[in-house]
Amino acid sequence: VSGAAADAGTTLAAVLSRALGLPPLDPARAARVAAIVRAQLEHGGGMPAERLRDAEPAGSFDPGWTP
Amino acid sequence: VDTVSADAPWARELVEAARLIRAGDLPARAVVEATLDRLEAVEPHVRAFTLVDRDGALAAAAELDRSLAAGGPRGPLHGVPVAVKDIFDVAGMPTRCGSDACADAAAADRDSDVVGRLRAAGAVVVGKTATHELACGVYTPPTRNPWDLERSAGGSSGGSAAALAAGAAMGALGSDTGGSVRIPAALCGVVGIKPTYDLVSRRGVATLSWSLDHVGPLARTVADAALLLAVMAGAPAITEDGPRVADGLAGRRIGVVREAFFDGIDPDVVIVFDQACALLADLGADLIEVSVPELAFASAAEYAIILPEAAAYHERLLAERAERVGDEVRDLLEAGRLLPAGAYVRAQRTRAALKAAFRDAYDRADLDAVVAPTVPAPAQHMDQASFWFDGGEEAVASAFVRTTAPFNLTGQPVVALPAGVSAAGLPVGIQLAGRPFGEASLIGLAGAFERARAWVAEHGPPRALAAALQEAGAAPVDSTAEA
Q1: Which tens digits make up the pLDDT trace of B360-377?
Q2: β-strands B171-176, B214-219: how paired?
Q3: Which of A2, A51, B319, B357 has the lowest tally of Cβ within 10 angstroms?
């Protein structure tokens, strides 16, 4: 990230950390963490909602598919 | 430069050594001592171990020799030297997870389930192997790749793979959350199995992601890895002499999926992969192109699951000792604490969709397995951050995870095995992914490919390591006489 986006992301990371009661992040780390979070949010965690209409979250302890 | 005799006890295949030990034709102590001698010779170059228990291993081997004479073998791994990734609890040893934040860990008071099973079957733990910090990365410093000591062994189970390639153990344990067994196996030219999710107990193993972690074996051959897996899973399907391997693959149907695996790939990997497919066809398999468009979203889902789960697991560590976690991993954990719950839920829904897509693809084409490159490039240099594919740059971790993580999401069993070498002489591997709980069938298929490819006979052991040993003045290691 760069420029205004970097500033906003860093601020967001710092604000979120504070709101969650986490130890403060130094500015350099906040910027790196913000970049990771922004990248993840851009991907949205996977498929777009319209393609997930019938998909329930995968169960952690059930492979969901047997031979 | 290769001065290694295949008859040296440490150089034998695990299944063969175990058979000789059980029959009383090869003392366990001779095998373990030769392996420890080899370990000590190669370790200054490879740096695969974080802890070596020479005295404990030799004492255990001597006891196994006595118990064999008195009452027979303890199990199928009687006297076999194994190495354990340093995220598994081993009674009497600390579990440091490759992190300064865990450097003060006390010795574990009991074995992890899987180490307990290996020991109950007669295996001897020679030491603990290096892991990328908290099992979260693909470099595993300071471990070096035995095929090129300037390159990475991969990760996160890099120490286990490098130890095997260097001859410092006959079998090893690894964990695979986004490829951490298969990536180092591919880079170091050994075999790694990621079993079906939850087939092998994770109790006593440090977590990275509860819903994606898989415990699996690494070894130098498919049969060796299969025997380890059978013990680890408590599965009786594989005999002590290894799995049944068919002479041919007539009637076996193997899918080739082009999405994701080939989105960016080293040309040498494509050459080896095409040769592997040709060999599978020569063996009688039908190769069928199949499409799984959902693969485009697999990496996004993988990271959106790993990061929050890892942050949750390490919550206390972050609260108490965050400053002792390396920057790369700490940044990921901090990001995991901040990701919104919606991204995690969407990722788990994407995972369900990906599973369904693979199941449908297997059913539609009546597939036994899917074959793909294990990773899209040979081993990276220790300080190399990215690859360039067709003019595009991709971070090393992202490139590797792109081809391995889909099967962590689906939970399918996968065997990663060597298939050839790059122009620079670095190992290149393929992975065969089967149906859930279809390990026996998959191992038979992989074994047939391995036997036809004869990779070990053609390429092992790594010449770079042999040259380093010779340059260092180490005598040729041939401990045949000890047997």
Answers
A1: 999 999 999 999 999 999
A2: antiparallel
A3: A2
| Residue whose C-alpha is closest to residue B123's, from B84, B82, B92, B69 | B82
- Written as six digits, the tokens of A5 are 């986006």
Distance CA B222, CA B80 (A): 16
CB B219 within 8 A of CB B172: yes
What is the pTM for the complete model shown? 0.93
- DSSP category for residue A57: P
At B416 the three-state DSSP class reads strand
Do the Cβ atoms of B294 and A58 come within 8 Å? no
CA-closest candidate to residue B204, choices B88, B335, B373: B88
Give the model's pLDDT for residue B1: 35
**First vs last C-alpha separation in chain B:** 24
* Cα gap B219→B113, rounded to integer Å: 19
Cβ contact B346–A52 (<8 Å): yes
Tokens 């994701």 belong to B260
Residues written for chain A? 67
Which letter, b or e, does each residue of B187-200 get, where b requires 16 or more Cβ atoms within 10 Å of its Cβ? Answer: bbbbbbbbbbbbbb
Considering only CA atoms, which of B112, A67, A47 is closest in space to residue A57? A47
Stretch B273-287: mean pLDDT, rounded? Answer: 97
Structure confidence at residue B58 (pLDDT) = 98
Cα–Cα distance between B368 and B253 in angstroms, integer? 5
Sign of CA dihedral B287, B291, B296, B298: negative
Token pair recorded at residue B31: 């095998």
B162–A contact, CB cutoff 8 A: no
B 422-441 near A (Cβ less than 8 A)? 435-438
Q: How many Å apart are CA A60 and CA B31, to the nearest integer?
A: 41
> In chain A, positions 15-34, which contact chain B (CB-CB < 8 Å)?
16-17, 20, 22-23, 25, 29, 32-33
Residues of B in contact with A63 (CB under 8 A): 196-198, 355, 411, 436-437
Q: What confidence category does residue A19 fall into, taking pLDDT thresholds of 50, 70 and 90?
A: confident
Whether the bond between B156 and the residue before it is cis, its omega within 30 degrees of 0, is: yes
Map tokens 């004479």 to a residue: B69
DSSP string, B332-380: HHHHHHHS-HHHHHHHHHHHHHHHHHHHHHHHHHT-SEEEEESSSSSPP
The residue type of B190 is V
Under an 8 A CB cutoff, do B196 and A63 touch?
A: yes
Give the Cα separation of B96 and B320 in Å (integer): 16
d(CA B115, CA B92): 12
The string of pLDDT tens digits covering residues B161-203 is: 999 999 999 999 999 999 999 999 999 999 999 999 999 999 9
Q: Tell me, what's the pLDDT at A22?
A: 74
- Confidence (pLDDT) at B240: 64
B contacts of A64 (beta carbons < 8 Å): 352, 355, 411
Please name the residue that has the structure tokens 């095997």.
B164
CA distance linking residue B183 with residue B88, whole number of Å: 19
